[in-house]
Design a protein that fits this description.
Blueprint lengths: L12 H5 L8 H8 L5 H12 L8 E3 L3 E2 L9 E2 L2 E5 L4 E7 L6 H13 L15 E7 L10 E8 L8 E13 L13 H11 L12 H15 L1 H50 L4 H8 L3 H7 L1
Parallel strand pairs: 5-6, 6-8
Antiparallel strand pairs: 1-4, 2-3, 4-5, 7-8
Helix pairs in contact: 3-5, 7-8
Length: about 300
């Protein structure tokens, strides 16, 4: 028995006929992998990504909201936050769109998670390892592979080589559209299975449905997808995202138009200045540049 009652056989005709909600939607993702009492699905996903560094035995789910620490500050809300059995703090985000700032957002979120980790007088070495995982439905880097890990590095200074400075803050950026572009020898099987599941849950080969965590995830997703309340909440989230990005697009277009107008205005002013230097009459400059005689007098 799960959060939604009795679960289904993922190989049944009913399961195959259900219009499954997409796990790559952040609302569906957080409901699917961030469910209490079913943390083993999240553990399996994390171990597929981390590939034993570290190996996670269990996790406890943490609050996902970090409120701003000053009146003019910025609060954050994560899709999933958890702490592993060895004390590693974990942030998992499903990102539907490329906003061009994934790395900066990941760094900001890690910094906010550090805020309350140390008490006054405590040694800085007690800061836990914080791993930030961003799974992206669009290309967000110019790199060819699908999984990228970022840590603090020493650059080559001409004397010392490039080397890792610290692994206290680790970031993973996963671009699910680039899975096939990455040679299989660089990815473990479970990583490929979970990325395929997130991208298209019906694409999972049947032999992998014998894995208890994968089977549970598909069963749960099937029941979620059949629940009218969950589907209504999913539709509301999709509308919210569409409205947000439509607003972003409008602002972008408005910015382009404003920039174009400013550019044209500056070009007219520069042209008028050149004509003034050549001694043209103000009336002629006004006619050619489109500026008012008063504006040209100001330039003069």
């Amino acid at each position: 028995m799960g959060e939604y009652g009795g679960l289904l056989d993922p190989k049944s005709d009913y399961t195959k006929e259900v219009d499954l909600l997409p796990p790559k939607n952040d609302y569906v993702f957080s409901r699917l992998f961030g469910r209490r009492s079913h943390e083993r699905v999240l553990v399996c996903l994390l171990n597929a990504i981390l590939n034993g560094k570290p190996h996670i035995k269990s996790v406890s789910l943490d609050p996902t909201e970090y409120k701003k620490t000053r009146p003019d500050g910025k609060s954050i809300r994560l899709d999933i936050a958890a702490t592993s059995d060895n004390g590693t703090r974990l942030q998992i985000e499903m990102q539907c769109k490329n906003n061009g700032n994934i790395g900066d957002r990941a760094s900001f979120c890690q910094g906010r998670m550090c805020d309350d980790e140390l008490k006054e007088g405590e040694n800085y070495s007690n800061i836990p390892t914080i791993i930030s995982i961003w799974i992206c439905d669009e290309s967000v880097t110019n790199r060819k592979g699908c999984c990228h890990e970022i840590v603090s590095m020493y650059k080559d200074n001409g004397v010392d080589p490039i080397e890792i400075a610290s692994e206290k803050m680790r970031q993973f950026i996963i671009e699910i559209t680039k899975l096939e572009a990455t040679p299989k020898r660089f990815l473990n099987d479970m990583f490929s299975v979970w990325i395929k599941f997130i991208r298209d849950p019906k694409s999972i080969p049947e032999e992998f449905l014998n894995i208890p965590e994968v089977k549970e995830a598909l069963e749960t997703l099937t029941v979620m997808s059949s629940d009218p309340v969950t589907r209504a909440e999913y539709n509301a989230r999709v509308k919210e995202l569409n409205d947000f990005y439509a607003g972003q697009s409008v602002k972008y277009e408005e910015g382009l138009e404003k920039g174009k107008e400013e550019g044209e205005k500056l070009a007219k002013i520069e042209s008028a200045r050149k004509m003034l230097k050549k001694g043209l009459e103000l009336s002629d400059i006004a006619e050619i540049s489109g500026l008012s005689i008063e504006k040209i007098k100001e330039l003069k």
